[in-house]
Amino acid sequence: MNTGNIVYTGKKLLSCFLAIILIILSCGDVWADEPVALAVGDKLTEGDLEYIVIDADNMYVAVSGMDTGADFSDKPLDIPANIVHEGITYSVTEIGANAFNYCTKISTVNIPYGVKSIGFSAFYESSLTYVSIPESVTTIGMHSFRSCKILQNVTIPGSVEKIEMDAFEGCSSLTKIIIPEGVKEIAYGAFFDCTNVDTISLPGSLEIMGFGVFGNCGNNTDELTVTMKEGMKEIGANAFGGCKKLKEIIIPSTVEIIENSVFSKCIALENVIIIIRTERITQIEKNTFNDCESLTSIEIPNSVTVFDEGAFSGCKSLREMRIDVNVNREDKNPVTDISLTEEAKNHPFLGVPTDRKLVFLNSDGTKKL
Predict the structure, then answer these.
(1) CB 128 within 8 A of CB 144
(2) Secondary structure letter of residue 222 according to DSSP
């Protein structure tokens, strides 16, 4: 038995063991300082803003509020695109629900590219006067800017596909509403009661306008101008109801649906043209032009064959309804009869003087009927 070899081997093993211990001890501080990502729902504060983690795998956070001691009343609030917290970089992808609601210490807010949505009531009743929305935003949430009464300017990018319910309701200092190409839907009451707006421009990409979208708009102005582009498909119920300074409207030929009460109580509306040469619109719905007391003339396509209850009730100035029936000079056949719904048999022209006329347009001019 060679005791010398045994001792040598033992010393060698002990040396290796001690070396491993030293390596572990020397790395201990490094491992202890390794950053640990926060979990979904965890909150953090960086600078003047508070955040909440919404995606731990991709390191996404939403702005959830502002430090109570911060004041941006007289300087812009520039929301960062990224933040570093305890060694980990997070991307800001949302303005969270209620983040700045009732906040009286903001004026101008610049939202960075990368933010995809502006959440529920994010700026509700705040002191916001201007906001910059980047092209990365696809959704402007419900009530997000509601009752921002001194908001004067907002640019909506074409990346936005939907403007949610009441998003800008009661923004009474807005003067222009320019909806860009790309927006497909404006939900219920989104711009209701924006009383100082004098210009509304709507894109051809717009497919759906919800109930009362622009109701009561422009009532504190001299005149409200509304333009619509070819491509639009649907005008929702009461969409322009109560717009007392709207004087003229031209409805594109691509519109397939005009719901009830769309222009109800537009008391300054004098002229309406529903673009002819279209077969999409077949009925003037209930109360569509109710109490449009200044309406003197209207052009409708020959596809319209039904008037519903109250369609023109209270239109006491209506003098001429022009209907394109696409007939030739030699055509002796009668035009298509116009019928009434069961509910409307005594009411579509309630309040319209009986000495008014319908004019059917022929290719060689007009023929009074």
Answers:
(1) no
(2) S
Spatial contact of 105 and 70, defined as CB atoms under 8 Å apart: yes
Q: Tell me the torsion sign for CA atoms 186, 179, 258, 262.
A: positive
SS3 6: helix
Q: Which residues contact 331 (CB under 8 A, 6 or more apart)?
A: none
Encoded tokens for 152: 């004067």
Distance between CA 255 and CA 252 in Å, rounded? 6
Reading the block at residue 151, the tokens are 């908001």
Distance CA 252, CA 323 (A): 16
Q: pLDDT digit string (tens) for 58-71?
A: 999 999 999 988 99
Eight-state DSSP code of residue 91: E
pLDDT-derived band at 121, boundaries 50, 70, 90: very high
Cα–Cα distance, 287 to 141 (Å, whole number): 31
Q: Token match 């002990």: residue?
A: 14
pLDDT in tens, 312-333: 888 888 877 776 655 444 444 4
CB 133 within 8 A of CB 110: no
pTM above 0.85, yes or no: no
Alpha helix stretches (DSSP H) within the chain: 3-32
Tokens of 312: 């023109």
What is the Cα gyration radius of the chain?
32
* Closest among 197, 216, 206 to 179, alpha carbons compared: 206
Phi, psi of 264 (to 5 degrees): -60, 130
Q: Please give the backbone phi and psi of residue 32, each rounded to the nearest 5 degrees, phi first.
A: -65, -30
pLDDT for res 327: 45
Number of Cα atoms under 13 Å in the Cβ half of residue 322: 15
Task: Collect all residues with Cβ–Cβ distance below 8 Å to 7 and sequence separation of at least 6.
Answer: none
